[in-house]
Amino acid sequence: xxxxxxxxxxxxxxxxxxxxxxxxxxxxxQLTSVTGRSAAGQVLGDYFPHLKSTELTIEPxxxxxxxxxxxxxxxxxxxxxxxxxxxxxxxxxxxxxxxxKDAADYPQWYDFTHPAPELLAKAVFGLxxxxxxxxxxxxxxxxxxxxxxxxxxxxxxxxxxxxxGTDIIIDSKSxxxxxxxxxxxxxxxxxxxxxxxxxALGGHRHLPxxxxxxxxxxxxxxxxxxxxPHLVPMTRGILTTAYAPLVTGKIxxxxxxxxxxxxxxxxxxxxxxxVRVVASSPHTKHTWGSNYCHIHPAIDHRTGRLIAISAIxxxxxxxxxxxxxxxNLMLGLLExxxxxxxxxxx
Amino acid sequence: xxxxxxxxxxxxxxxxxxxxxxxxxxxxxQLTSVTGRSAAGQVLGDYFPHLKSTELTIEPxxxxxxxxxxxxxxxxxxxxxxxxxxxxxxxxxxxxxxxxKDAADYPQWYDFTHPAPELLAKAVFGLxxxxxxxxxxxxxxxxxxxxxxxxxxxxxxxxxxxxxGTDIIIDSKSxxxxxxxxxxxxxxxxxxxxxxxxxALGGHRHLPxxxxxxxxxxxxxxxxxxxxPHLVPMTRGILTTAYAPLVTGKIxxxxxxxxxxxxxxxxxxxxxxxVRVVASSPHTKHTWGSNYCHIHPAIDHRTGRLIAISAIxxxxxxxxxxxxxxxNLMLGLLExxxxxxxxxxx
Amino acid sequence: xxxxxxxxxxxxxxxxxxxxxxxxxxxxxQLTSVTGRSAAGQVLGDYFPHLKSTELTIEPxxxxxxxxxxxxxxxxxxxxxxxxxxxxxxxxxxxxxxxxKDAADYPQWYDFTHPAPELLAKAVFGLxxxxxxxxxxxxxxxxxxxxxxxxxxxxxxxxxxxxxGTDIIIDSKSxxxxxxxxxxxxxxxxxxxxxxxxxALGGHRHLPxxxxxxxxxxxxxxxxxxxxPHLVPMTRGILTTAYAPLVTGKIxxxxxxxxxxxxxxxxxxxxxxxVRVVASSPHTKHTWGSNYCHIHPAIDHRTGRLIAISAIxxxxxxxxxxxxxxxNLMLGLLExxxxxxxxxxx
Amino acid sequence: xxxxxxxxxxxxxxxxxxxxxxxxxxxxxQLTSVTGRSAAGQVLGDYFPHLKSTELTIEPxxxxxxxxxxxxxxxxxxxxxxxxxxxxxxxxxxxxxxxxKDAADYPQWYDFTHPAPELLAKAVFGLxxxxxxxxxxxxxxxxxxxxxxxxxxxxxxxxxxxxxGTDIIIDSKSxxxxxxxxxxxxxxxxxxxxxxxxxALGGHRHLPxxxxxxxxxxxxxxxxxxxxPHLVPMTRGILTTAYAPLVTGKIxxxxxxxxxxxxxxxxxxxxxxxVRVVASSPHTKHTWGSNYCHIHPAIDHRTGRLIAISAIxxxxxxxxxxxxxxxNLMLGLLExxxxxxxxxxx
Lengths: 346, 346, 346, 346
Hints:
4 copies of one chain form a homotetramer. Chain A has 346 residues and is of the alpha/beta class. Chain A is built from 11 helices and 14 strands. Helices cover 31% and strands 21% of the residues of chain A. In chain A, the strands form 2 sheets. In chain A, strands 3-2-1-4-5-7-6 form a 7-stranded parallel β-sheet, with helices on both faces. Chain A starts with a strand and ends in a 16-residue tail after the last helix.
């Protein structure tokens, strides 16, 4: 039987090329078309030497496929996807264009009027740990942002179970590849190396996603979330440290409370193939190149606060790997197919 | 006139060797004695090739000096310093042994009974921005920890002016040299490179310093501080991001409030030679190799929170540079002597 | 049918743990036993969180297996392996203990008298590109060193075809993981980061391997090889730049000569699954986490010299991946089984 | 007495901003004018926060100064400098435009016809260790390239004394800042991090400088030099490893020869304030941020080759620091003024 044909729109960015790497090794689908404007006409394996074994040529337009991934920048992605949806194609969108349910958020956060607000309701937010069943039957999946993936997974069990109050601080540290392959002084080697800095102090675009999804978990709460991203000198990885006050009386004191918390998290994620609740502080290195998310919930007993920490590879679970996980669900494949690779350590 | 003779106890760690670098270039004092147990007998400039121009030999015991720096580990440092104080020597202690005012904190946080609790009252906490006058007449100065330096400077204006409530989160990101020169798997290159992780989730030893000093700024408040340090893959630098609720009505809304806040910080530090309140998010790289602390206070208008960020070089303002700043004050020298070096960028 | 059971002696070093990662994902064999002295009794997936999915416990002694990998340090490895060979087990030795054919080389280069010189003739040097057929029927395979793998593959076609004279300079740049997981000031993060240095100027232990194997390719030549390794601040990867005078008249002038050279290399490696002769200067990053070796031969027309450059991942093609490649050959499996992973870029 | 006024043309690149850092701290000259096209009108200390203490504004055109540094790219630099020379100004040119004595080299290596060939004879190659006296009386000094500085200093004693034959291999490893501040995929963080690669295999532009200067040291020789530069993942530093056959009979065998060689190098550089002949393999880290060059000459006894290794900071001794050293000589100041800073380690 012929394999499902899949394609990547804009293979030349980091999310796109990471998708290509994973899909080239996927046993159940065949990557048959990749596009990229500036590089059109070049052989993919010449453009990206680590993909030498593929024989694809980068095309200006997507060829005939059964499912498409869009790795276009936001605003442009929606325009590429709209005709594909009309044609009945399944689509996984790596951009932010279909993540937010409220069309009014787009002018505010992304500076454009959404061209297809009717699709926002149709699109499913592609975090399988929260929306698996809907993803299975979705035509359009909005792959979550890298920061939201780490932040939501770190906090979801606590929010869902009502363990924490509404004052939440999310402090994330990201590797530089999260800023993409487009040239920029911020990501120029000599500027980013041996440097750490916060950015987007006025409000990062990933904040509304985080708020939207955490609220869905506990509709009664009116969350007050501060989210500050940081750039740290490494290529891959996001470590998210989230802080929130524990609601009194929900969790025992001392060691016992720590165990209860760990068990609550373990229970929440017990059937999740890619979430590991770990017993000590997680390292981004332990997820490098893999689709795993490592989470550790801890208690600051002095102040009665939850400290929930997650580690992911921003290009895998934070982008391309999760997109393939969504594709697997949409195609009725085993969710882990093509994503079993363990992290490359050290 | 003969220069003041100064010595370093334990020159072979990173704080010690950084002290040697600065003191070798100091125009008003002369480094005449350096000690180090394992390396005793070796020429300092052979042991550390960047110090080639000095002719000192590492000794087992401190020679005759007018002022001594101790860069010994905690617990051992107190024992080295006690006889020096008895002899009437001026001492700057880089360790934690005289930073905490309450002797009971030592068994709790450092696992030893303090051998000279009477000296805790005598010792001055060596953060010149808060205790300059006392430092000038001190015999024993307890040089602050690297994290407390960044955290206290970031929050001091806001706490002092009563701008913020008591729920404070301090999330710090440190370069690896902060963990010292002793070998450890955590700081093994292949483990620390391309990795970010939080540590000391149960409570870091620098927390009581931070609490002690911030409380002194506003005695009415009972602060509830969570402090979580992180290791990021760079050699030098600490970025501290502090979060706290703004007290209603103290600061205007919108842009106007941001300006008021910036001005309040600028005013607080207006006479400080080494603190620069900057107009955008600070980078550790801009302080690399220098004694400067860059601070930027921002407002999260959505949640009404202060976000105060500071950047320092952990080995300079966070250790050896601040120790020399304290020495300058103790000796009646111009505070900036020997510390004028600008950051080395990029 | 039961899978072949394989075991790893000393799983706790970087070669050992990388073997575990690859073998855990190998479809045709089962990793059933791993040993490690200091960590005996711990669960492998606790000790190395990226291996969480395995359920192995680190043992003090190797259990019953069909084939064993030894990742012990040299000298100790021979002693572990001797009884296994006596028992008739297949063994791949990652150490240097069976690489050199002349027992007299061991006291000179490794400072010990070889305990089983009779096994040196029996052992096969495990570079499949040169010794594939012998490896297939070997009981004991000596896995090449990381530097020799890159250096020999870069030079083999030129030596074999008599293209170059005997004056060869090999300048290698290695990532820090090549120095192992044992703690050492040289590989302490703050020392190795932002540093490049040469080492082993008096002669590196990998030199005799390189000489032995290149001589075998052209028995008439008496090679004069200088090999200098360098440590560069990255975790994985070896770039080898080899220089040698081109023999006059063997290769055309100008562009034509470059094409001839490229074709000669391509022809030499045309059936090799893991060697890619590339058309431009290779990057270690393009082999990161994979078993591929990228090679580019160039000509310095001004001086008539060959410049042959190779890039590998020192822990995969330079150690664990090549060991599994050898195992596949010994077991009659498809050579690429379990090693198909593409490099993880960026 | 008024200080000498100096200016920097194009302060916004890495060589320019490093010049600004050093000149701001120079006790005998005053930096009074800095230019930069794209950034004209901005305050220097806003553009580069580590220079906050200066009050200069970046100008479109150079103001009135006594001596000018040009940090313009090649070809453009000559055009900026020609009118300054006509006006009688002293100039230090950081670009390559006046380094080569033969005007015919410019079309070949730099792709332009030199606009002022008559100035090539007038210009002095600004390597003080070789041309100090001429620099003192020069009006126009051509500051050497970063690679040539390291390579020439490593080989000069051996070439001058006729110790080595003419077959020379120079393998250099440079930090990424050497590629400048202009954006480029090669120097994009995620591409350059965790990567090592050779470049300019067809001939790097610094080769003719190296050849020109080494030939001047031994006019009888017809050198056959291969020079291959590499990019390694660090911000600053160049390590150069040079290989050449030792002429028979010039140096003793064994340990004695090593001592003779070391002494010959030490003697050659005995009056040099910034060259340190060191007894073991040099590390770039030990020169970080300083104007020092560390050199170690070694012998490969097996092959009778010299291995000469040098380490510099490419932006200091390899660019801005050496430019200031040249300025000091031109102005009759103590050569080391403003350049005494020790390397910042670790």
